[in-house]
Amino acid sequence: MRIGTRGSALALTQSGWVAERIRERHPGTAVELVTIRTKGDIMQDVSLVKIGGKGLFIKEIEDALLRSEVDVAVHSMKDVPAELPEGLEIAVTPPREDPRDVLISQGNRKLEEMPHGARIGTCSLRRGLQLRNRMPDLQIVPLRGNLDTRIKKVETENLAGVIVAAAGIRRMGWTAKVSQFIPVEVMLPAVGQGVLGIETRRNDARAREAVAFLHDPITACEVGAERAFLKRLGGGCQLPIAAFAKRKGDGLTIEGLVGSPDGRVMIGHKLTGPWEEGEALGRELADNILARGGRALLDEVYQDGPV
User: Do 3 and 23 belong together in one domain?
Assistant: First the structure.
């Protein structure tokens, strides 16, 4: 089994976890990690908004999968576009890790303790939008780089703090660095945040069966609703978009938002319904937001067509 993965420490930890589970489940199976550099990894000095495009962190891995150079690919689902290439599918989503964002700060300060004008680093328009709406006196500093690089920039760039995904911090064993776990009610996560996606070729039954034991149907239900919301919006990384679905018993609640790149406009809504209708709820949520001003935001950003 050849597993396609990015080469960052976090990506290798995530794909290594999958590899180890496969070895445990299928003794005697040789499992190899195949490291593939993506466009997003190569262009570290350019903001994601300026690079544009969908699949910045997965396209080259998907190409290798289509060429049968790897058997499966392991992605962070928040990096996976709503539309997949013909012939590929996300076959498995293991149980979701912590979906929240975290603050890592100087002096272990929490967001509400930040001084006026404090410089907070983030690579995400989504985080910047929600920060500006709650704490307009903060200064948002764009960041690029792998997780460890962004954390180091608290010191090297003299930032008051950085905001990153809790899931990556937990998977790396770095929770001692966290100053604050930010509730989803305060900062809505990215679509698929905290979820790993194991991608296979549609016609490769052997690969699908080898990883099927890792699948979690509740996570699949939740992330399916979030991705249906994203797909109906048709937005990419040039617009702040967030969504979070949570299944409880027979019900599912999904909340989403869309904002303007400058953070001045934020349109959000929440819906609850039967979990079996999760994807329909995601589409309904998107339609609600589009009708209340979201369509105008998307048209303005993508007036020349989605990148």
Answer: yes
